[in-house]
TrEMBL record:
The lineage of its organism: Eukaryota, Viridiplantae, Streptophyta, Embryophyta, Tracheophyta. This is Serine/threonine-protein phosphatase 7 long form homolog. GO terms for biological process: meristem maintenance. It holds the Pfam family PMD. Coiled coil: none annotated. The gene is LOC104216405. It comes from Nicotiana sylvestris (Wood tobacco). Residues 63-412 form the Aminotransferase-like plant mobile domain.
Length: 629
């Protein structure tokens, strides 16, 4: 099993993870390392808002009484980045070595204290800030503080962070709405813009009692799911959403990057994120993405705490939160305006103390966008998603009896991406593949062809050709030896083939030389070749107008020469180690066959002409470098 995953990390069956090619794990496996993601959460200045008692009461009515208590927690960007590498947008779960896990509505309720039951967070879109800000805040920002339907967080703080004690109730409400917009824009709905928040949330705070009826926790989770899915794509470098929720979820569930507490966790405060308040002692300075990736790749069942809240006294949890915890097991659609994401607890039953069964197939859904038009009520556009959310209490996942989890793990290992990082360095993979190709080439070169018919001979020829093509592609991309403008060869690599390519820059070639030697590929490696009898040669076309192969046999019936002709590429084989400058001259003047024949009367070489040749002077001007194998 270990050897298999060293070369193929999965999935074996791509029925579930059908977007693997787009995922960042594919890029990492191919050697395209991605640095730690830029994490956009803007909680550092939340404590600069000075709320009055009246404002705090309004904040509680709106459902954010606990969220406002959560302080800024230092984010571990490498840990978050490694978790993102394990996130799959096809299932909205993390694919770990031990099985699937995810952040559920139960986690949101425990960790943030946000309401996870209620009306869907959805409304009207805006492309301008002025009208809605004047109506609900009493003033509008200057154009420098806006961008379409978004307003800068800095304007909200500068204008509304201090409400006068003697302010009218209308002003208190305006200042509180500004604070709530700032709060959601810097935490649960933080965007990759860095410092802006859409004003479309503002009308939801017009009436504070009605604001308290929304499922803000479900909206926060939908937003985070979408952010995780976007960040898991190989082209992304940033992530937004409630990253404090994500990081603290990891601290509770995984023994990876978890800091040591400086206080006794027995006396828990609600919400449970507060366990990680303040400074913790943990050596995170030398922990980069690769460190956490390796830890997650080697994670064992003992590193997972499936039910971390079970030992915490529930007496500190508000009654309305306790009543809604059942929705953690609801298969439903989470909604935050245009962001609708599936909540699939049936894939993570062990997080609810149940045995895991093979889950049902995930029903695909369209990830919609709100578009560019303002004044659009998304309730119509998201009708099917809203219907699914309205039936959330009807689809509660229940435990099954007599479940054998080994069946689940057998299924899971076939559909998952087990590894993200390579167990064997890519340079070692290259050397092993190179050695195997050379072995195949040697077998094909020395194979006796006596008794073979034309079809069998052509098959052997094709094997040899394909092997040489693979070797050429590998070596041409890693080893390049410079020649000067007069066509003189620099340090020669011993070998029997010469590859000349056009249009490659000097800088790139210099880097490739360094990479070649760093990989440890033997410079002395060469492809075998031998002389042959011209009378025994055969010409084969390989299904292309630009490619044909001349094959010849020696006196022992072995394939001894293959001459190639490919558009914009010339491969010539020489068994006698001709001087390079002489080789250039012969090949360019078309006299290679005759002069070699004079030197070696028992051998001749057929050179299949290319579509066009440059003059020697053109080659010297256009191609200062040659590739030698």
């Amino acid at each position: 099993m270990v050897d298999y995953y060293a070369t193929n990390p999965g999935p074996i069956d791509d029925a579930v993870l059908y977007d693997q090619d787009k995922h960042v794990s594919s890029a990492i496996w191919e050697g395209q390392e991605r640095s730690a993601l830029r994490c956009h959460e803007h909680t550092s200045k939340l404590d600069q808002w000075m709320l009055t008692e009246k404002q705090i009461e309004l904040v509680k009515k709106a459902g954010f009484g606990y969220l406002r208590m959560i302080p800024a927690i230092s984010l571990d960007n490498p840990l978050i980045s490694a978790l993102v590498e394990r996130w799959r947008r096809e299932t909205n779960t993390f694919h770990f070595t031990v099985g699937e896990m995810t952040v559920t509505l139960e986690d949101v309720a425990y960790l943030l204290g946000l309401p996870v039951d209620g009306e869907a967070v959805i409304g009207v879109t805006y492309t301008s800030c002025e009208a809605v800000c004047i109506r609900l805040l009493g003033k509008a920002p200057d154009s420098g503080y806006t961008s379409g339907g978004m307003v800068k967080l800095s304007w909200l703080k500068e204008t509304f962070s201090q409400c006068p004690e003697d302010a009218s109730m209308e002003d208190v409400e305006r200042h509180t709405r500004a604070y709530l917009l700032y709060l959601v824009g810097s935490t649960i709905f933080s965007t990759t813009t860095g410092n802006k928040v859409p004003v479309m949330y503002l009308p939801l705070f017009e009436n504070f009692d009605e604001a308290g009826r929304y499922a803000w926790g479900a909206a926060a989770l939908s937003f985070l799911y979408r952010a995780l899915g976007n960040a898991s794509l190989r082209s992304q470098s940033t992530i937004s959403g409630c990253l404090t929720l994500l990081q603290c979820w990891s601290y509770y569930h995984l023994n990876v990057g978890r800091p040591k507490l400086n206080h006794d966790p027995i006396h828990e405060c609600f919400p449970f994120v507060l366990r990680w308040k303040g400074k913790q002692s943990s050596p995170t300075s030398n922990r980069d993405v690769a460190f956490y990736r390796k830890a997650l790749d080697s994670m064992k069942p003992s590193d997972v705490d499936w039910c971390p809240y079970s030992n915490i006294s529930h007496t500190v949890i508000p009654e309305h939160i306790l009543r809604s915890l059942i929705l953690g097991r609801s298969k439903t659609m989470l909604i935050c305006y245009d962001k609708a994401e599936r909540h699939l607890p049936d894939r993570c039953l062990r997080q609810f103390g149940m045995h895991q069964t093979v889950p049902e197939e995930v029903q695909k859904w369209e990830r919609k966008s709100r578009g560019v038009d303002g004044g659009v009520d998304l309730s119509t556009k998201m009708e099917s998603e809203l219907n699914e959310w309205s039936n959330r209490h009807l689809y509660i996942v229940e435990a099954e009896e007599d479940v054998e989890e080994s069946e689940y793990m057998q299924w899971y290992l076939r559909i998952t991406r087990k590894l993200v990082g390579r167990p064997v360095p890519i340079s070692s993979e290259f050397q092993r593949m190179n050695a195997a190709l050379r072995e195949i080439a040697l077998i094909a070169d020395t194979l006796s062809t006596h008794g073979m018919d034309d079809q069998q001979l052509q098959s052997v020829t094709r094997i040899r050709y394909i092997t040489y093509e693979c070797l050429r592609d590998q070596i041409a991309s890693t080893v390049v030896v410079a020649t000067n403008s007069q066509g003189e060869v620099g340090k020669r690599v011993r070998g029997k083939e010469r590859v000349r390519r056009k249009g490659m820059g000097k800088r790139k070639r210099k880097e490739e030389i360094e990479q070649y030697y760093a990989a440890g590929v033997p410079v002395q490696s060469r492809l075998p070749a031998a002389t042959f009898d011209a009378d025994d040669s055969h010409l084969y076309h390989m299904g292309s107008d630009d490619l044909c192969i001349t094959v010849s046999e020696d006196d022992h019936g072995r394939i001894s020469h293959v001459a190639h002709s490919v558009d914009d590429l010339e491969l010539c084989e020489d068994a006698n180690g001709l001087d390079e400058s002489h080789f250039h001259h012969l090949a360019e003047d078309g006299r290679l066959s005759s002069e070699v024949a004079e030197d070696k009367p028992h051998a001749s070489i057929d050179v299949v002409p290319q579509v066009s040749h440059e003059t020697r002077e053109d080659i010297a001007q256009q191609n200062d470098y040659g590739v030698l194998v």
